[in-house]
Amino acid sequence: MDPTTKANQAAWNAASQKHIREYDDLLAEAAAGTSLNDLEREVLSPILRRSPAVVHVQSGNGTDDVALVQAGAKHVVGVDYSRVAIHAAQRRANDLGMACRYVLGEVPRTPLASGNADLVYTGKGALMWMRDLPAWAAEIARLLRPGGHVFIYEMHPAAVLWTWDEDQARIREDRDYFGRSHVNDDFPAHGAVQWQWRLGDVVTVLATAGLEILHLGEYGEPFYRWGGVTAAAWDGRLPNAFSLLARLRLPSYYRFRHQLRRHQFRHRCQTAADPDAGQQAAGGGRGG
């Protein structure tokens, strides 16, 4: 682990004590399933209806994982490098009887087998802690089964520029949209370094790793509002969050098998609708 990531891990272990202090509140939030919002449910509903096996990279306090199981996921495996966070999340899942399991691990080197996930879920303050985004995308592709999906709901890259002034939105003089990183000054603080990735970076690394972008949306509403803060930048005129859904492309063999099955299914339907046509087609094939 490089020195910056190690320092960030220490900052998160300290900040994650909040998950213990506010255990009862987070338990109630997890039980209510409110951490998975309407936007996420709309995009994910076709996938969750198929009871997917989910891996949540950078799982944090784990409230999203409970909501995913409640919404249809078969089970969720959360991965985080904060020992404090995963212990608190596992305790909550156990208290609620939810099929969630947590492992200690540093993304992008997760201690999980390849091809074990139908859905990789991430975001809500995750990407900015990734120093190596191409390696992150490659790890997601490794975890997914062929045809599996990754869903991201995250802070918009431009949102780091906005001040929290109430009278009008302003651009922070100490931030640069094209900068490489900056020091976090809200949560977890403690000198943690956030890495800056633009939308183009995220889309490019996922495409390079073999994923097909199915959905990309941008929103004026931030994924999280700090209590007591009424920022003009959050009034809907500026980008504050984005969502992305991508699918791991099927290898050539799987694509051929899928196309063959579709052809066979159509042939069976045509034969059932017109048996004489099916017999003629079969006879013509033998005679040819």
Description:
- This protein is α/β, with parallel strands linked by helices.
- The chain has two domains: 3-249, Vaccinia Virus protein VP39 (Rossmann fold), CATH 3.40.50.150; 253-288.
- 41% of the residues lie in helices and 20% in strands.
- The chain has helices spanning 3-15, 17-21, 23-32, 38-48, 63-70, 83-96, 133-143, 199-208, 252-273, 275-287; strands at 53-57, 75-80, 100-104, 117-123, 144-155, 181-183, 193-195, 211-219, 241-248.
- The strands form two sheets. Strands 3-2-1-4-5-9-8 form a seven-stranded mixed β-sheet, with helices on both faces. A two-stranded antiparallel ribbon has the order 6-7.
- Strand 1 (53-57), helix 5 (63-70) and strand 2 form a beta-alpha-beta unit.
- Mean pLDDT is 89; it is low at 280-288.
What's the CATH H-level superfamily name of the largest domain? Answer: Vaccinia Virus protein VP39
Q: Largest sheet, if any? A: 7 strands, mixed
Task: State the helix count.
Answer: 10
Structural class: alpha/beta
How many separate structural domains? 2
Rg over C-alpha atoms, rounded to the nearest angstrom? 23 Å
Write down the overall mean pLDDT: 89
SSE run: HHHHEHEHEEHEEEHEEHH
pLDDT < 50 runs, ≥5 residues: 280-288
Remind me, CATH topology of the largest domain?
Answer: Rossmann fold
What is the strand content?
15-25%
The CATH architecture of the largest domain:
3-Layer(aba) Sandwich
Share of residues in helices = 40-55%
How many extended strands? 9
Strand line-up in the sheet with most strands: 3-2-1-4-5-9-8
Reading off the top of the CATH hierarchy, the class of the largest domain is best stated as Alpha Beta
Distance between the termini: 66 Å
Shape: globular
